[in-house]
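Example: Secreted protein.
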Amino acid sequence: MNIDWSALGAVFVVALASVAVLASLFSFGVAGLSQREAAREAGASGSGQLAGAVTCFAVCAAIIGYGIYLIVA
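Written out as structure tokens, the predicted fold is:
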């Protein structure tokens, strides 16, 4: 049984990068929602923060959907 270590390493690096990107995007989305709440309490609209949070969550959902598509197909 031969193990292709370079392919295994490539999969590991891509998975690690994907996890880092997804976790960062999700945390930016949560931070945007938190900043929106702070802006609303201060009397501002906070629509910019909401737009950024929704964008981050939409990109997260798109990446997850693409990963599921790759697994199923």
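The chain has a mean pLDDT of 95.
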